[in-house]
Amino acid sequence: MDIDDLYKSLGLEPPSDGENKHEPKGEEIKARIDKTLNFNKNRNIFFRKWYAVAASLTFIILSAAGIYIYNLNNSGSEDMITITAPTGATREIILPDGSHVWLNAASVLRYPASFGKTREVFLEEGEGFFQVKRDTTAPFTVHSSHLDTRVLGTSFRVKAYTKLAHEIVTVVSGKVAVSRGAEPLALLEKDQEVIFDKNSGNEKEMLVEATESVDWKSGNVILKSVRFEDLILAVENAYQVSIHFDRQKFKECENSIRFSTHQSLESVMDLVSDIQGIRYEINGKEVNVSGEGCQ
Prior knowledge:
Blueprint: H1 3-9, H2 26-36, H3 39-73, E1 80-85, E2 91-94, E3 100-103, E4 107-112, E5 119-131, E6 140-143, E7 148-151, E8 155-160, E9 166-173, E10 176-180, E11 183-188, E12 192-197, E13 203-207, H4 210-213, E14 220-227, H5 228-239, E15 242-244, E16 254-260, H6 265-276, E17 279-283, E18 286-290
Parallel strand pairs: 5-6, 15-18
Antiparallel strand pairs: 1-4, 2-3, 3-5, 4-5, 5-8, 6-7, 7-10, 8-9, 9-12, 10-11, 12-13, 14-16, 17-18
Domain FecR protein: 82-176
Keywords: Membrane, Transmembrane, Transmembrane helix
Protein name: FecR family protein
């Protein structure tokens, strides 16, 4: 192949007669070879693919870092555990920090599988006695439907049945701060309790024998100067029955009672009859109560 054929094979015009055919047009030949072999196109495709891979890797790394930081600050916020104590039974729970909780009958507690910078649990229904492991770096808060009870390490009970017109916080040991959202309600010490009225929004502080209020852990129900609806609910939850009565008639009634959940339902209803002057009839899991009430 002579020099003219070489030029023609690359799509170039051969040198004119006045030009030196033995001095090939180097830049033109190189450009033609690049074009013939699609070198520039392949190189651009390579770099585009490389940039895409690099961008994807960067996104994955940054996303993983963000998730790690979020989880570090919000440890356990998505992983919630729900424990229920059915009617007729109580439950003992050990929380992730080693704190102990006893749930009374017909109660529901929700809490994270692990605690982060704070320790927050939710008493969604019922009554719980909390023995909180002390940790000054991580406050412990019980959220009920109307109140927030905050401690560093102490023992107390929260009673927050939705059927009742009030919520109660009672301190067995240590100190407890009770608030309603951002509004402080009470700072309680041992043998003090606060009763929050859901209807009026008012609270009342009292001195009590706190250990008696949580003796249901041992199967003993001790109620002092409580509303009739409170007494009836305690019987319902202990014996898995529904008790029907005229709430308006008995609205102003207050009673005190002490009974063991090992007693029969009939014996406990006899006690209620003695202290409140009611009449009752048991039909399986239904109990009908009648009487004059406290109008």
